[in-house]
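Re: export button greyed out
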Amino acid sequence: MLTKSLVNNINLMTDKTIHKTIIIGSGPAGLTSAIYAGRANLKPIVFEGNQPGGQLTITTDVENYPGFPKGVMGPEMMDLFRDQAKKFGAECFFKHVTKVDFSSKPYKVYVGDEEFLSETIIISTGASARMLGLKEEDELMGYGISTCATCDGYFFKDKNITVVGGGDSAMEEASFLTKFAKKVTIIHRSEMFRASKIMLDRAKNNPLIEILVNKSIKSINGTQKDGVSSIVLTDTISGQESTFDCEGVFYGIGHNPNTDLFKGIIDLDDNGYILTKPDSTLTNIPGVFACGDVQDDHYRQAITAAGSGCMAAIDAEKYLEE
Amino acid sequence: MSDKTVKITDENFEELVINSDKLVIVDFWAEWCGPCKAIAPILDKICDQFGDKVLVGKVNVDEVKQTPVKFGIRSIPTLLFFSNGEIVKQEVGLQSEQTLIDNVNQIVS
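Workaround output, generated via the alternate export path:
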């Protein structure tokens, strides 16, 4: 069994420093708060979590973030955010916070058995892809079911695949996947699409994309060895079932806020999003702030996340001054 | 790719992975895969921590044609843990540093 001194090769683990701010999460919200906190000389520590850079690292072209008229690749953009944060003194670690304790000050954040202390906490844990909740997901995720079109589309060259969902993510994934697939079928449970007009039109006008409405997926057929072979659909109006042959199922059905860590600790709304006081990032706990998708069910854009990350750093700085 | 890891090809797979006396973590990755880039520094750290007991081999799925198909890779990143020529563990998708360290500890001890 490795001793702590071997596991922790960073000095900050072995001392009991009370940091000024710890930022949990490293998407646009977390890294923007790191830039501002760094510039305010708060020497922020960022725990990047299981998806360093956040949701944009699993997308390709980001066309709507201001300042990039030619677009920018998601992972590249997040590398730029991180470089900028480090320039101003933020220390970023690929560590995933497993527990928090905000019952007394200084606040405590845990990565396994490593404990970190801080006067303020900025929560920017974002959101994760929602699953359909089918029992086949445990077995077939990564073997034909995917939540990352950019990671896995490559393995479905010349195949018939499906994308589930009706929002911008689903439209973007479907369009992206036509680079590889023989045919992409979008499956949506109603006729109403959340997607923006531009993205929906792009999908509709793509000859390789077909859209099936009023269908939900009942089950997915396949094995780890041979992948997915077909899915069973239920018509959401008639209830009639049908089998649809396909070799891949890509999920684009939205996200759940990553707030399991904070259940029973911070006030959450009915959908699990962190509640923040209007026009601020303040949570119900003084000195704990929330920014980005984890507290935003409405806008969920990189630019709004970045904006709220800036607010969180300013709110934290003000709190520390008082 | 860092200097702590080795580049695996269809040609050197048998020698470097199957015939190795160490635990070999084979990392299937690609340039365009964000989570693959995120897992790279974590694997570097594992090399540092476990030294001679572990070898991390990288398979770039764009360049290496047969090996990914042979192992039925359908998603990246995928990590296959080889010990004495056999797959003893497999992880699909981005994993936390702690999960990977626990996996390695379990196998080498």
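The CA atoms of residues 138 and 145 of chain A lie 10 Å apart. The button fix ships in the next patch.
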